[in-house]
Design goal:
Layout lengths: L1 E8 L2 E8 L4 E5 L9 H7 L4 E5 L8 E2 L8 H14 L5 E6 L1 H12 L4 E7 L10 H18 L1 H12 L20 H19 L5 H6 L3 E7 L6 H13 L4 E3 L5 H4 L1 H12 L18
Parallel strand pairs: 3-4, 3-6, 6-7, 7-8, 8-9
Antiparallel strand pairs: 1-2, 2-4, 2-5
Length: 287
């Protein structure tokens, strides 16, 4: 059974969903809404109370000011408020893509609220050797959106991210095939105009991530070798002194293969790394 809720936070009203019972697990993306994580949440709900939500300004989470930018810090504060509303001192967190960046900001801004963070393919472009070129590419994508619209911007985004445009996109955060809905277009417009720049320019607080009480695990898709998030994920793992955990599929493996993905995630959350022979480091929780 899934229950739907609304939470008032500063500047917004968040839509969130609750499934299952057991230890609390927050599953989140950005800009992907709660609906994208439904198959993964369903695969985990027999063992966890799984909470998903629409990030501020996306889908059912409405802003007081539609022109407000979405930063990792704001989104992290929203998640902390969500924990408060749930009456939870702490929870495990799985974040993918921009949701992984939100999770990293949550650990830094709200120490002790996260038991284990699984940061799956965070697009931390500032950690790459060509960070300056990536900043320029991001600005070009945003300018393309303002000049030519959502479709053209998504095309440039996908090419820069390393996806084969027109092929199997593996659950990447693009509008669904066919004619996009009005909500798809609105969410995409918000992503390009108010979220992409802030998410990709976020610099993780390595001290908070390695010396605090939270166990941080970096997740990386088995088929993500050609993607820009392969580089950002391995760079983050190196910063933390850990090895990434391999998950099925690529950037959107939780969409395509939710049962297999849930199995690996379950192994990580119970203290292992979900794959034979992984070298787990107890202090940071890295693998």
């Amino acid at each position: 059974m899934t229950t739907h809720h609304t939470l008032a936070v500063p500047g917004a009203r968040l839509h969130y969903e609750v499934r299952g019972e057991g230890p609390l697990l927050l599953v989140m993306g950005a800009p992907m809404p709660a609906a994208a994580f439904a198959p993964l949440a369903q695969a985990l709900q027999s063992e966890y109370t799984v909470v998903t939500h629409d990030p501020r300004g996306i889908s059912g989470s409405v802003l007081d000011d539609p022109e407000q930018d979405s930063t990792p810090e704001l989104r992290a504060d929203d998640v902390a408020a969500l924990l408060d509303a749930l009456g939870a001192d702490s929870a495990d967190v799985f974040g993918s893509s921009g949701g992984a960046v939100t999770g990293l900001a949550l650990v830094a801004r709200h120490p002790g609220r996260v038991r284990t963070l699984v940061a799956h393919e965070p697009p931390l472009l500032e950690l790459l050797p060509d960070a300056a070129e990536q900043r320029a590419a991001t600005e070009d994508i945003i300018a393309t959106f303002h000049r030519d619209g959502v479709g053209a911007a998504w095309m440039k985004f996908m090419v820069n991210a390393g996806f084969q445009v027109g092929g199997d996109e593996g659950g990447a955060p693009t509008p669904p095939p066919g004619e996009p809905s009005a909500q798809d277009l609105a969410d995409s417009a918000r992503f390009f105009a108010h979220e992409l720049r802030h998410t990709t320019r976020y610099l993780p607080d390595s001290a908070a991530l390695t010396t605090g009480p939270t166990r941080v695990v970096v997740g990386l898709g088995a088929d993500s070798g050609s993607l820009i998030t392969y580089g950002t994920s391995t760079a983050l793992a190196g910063l933390l002194g850990t090895k990434p955990v391999e998950f099925p599929g690529d950037h959107g493996g939780f969409v395509d293969r939710p049962s297999e993905f849930a199995g690996i995630l379950r192994g990580v959350l119970t203290g292992g790394c979900g794959q034979a022979g992984a070298d787990r480091r107890v202090r940071t929780g890295g693998c």
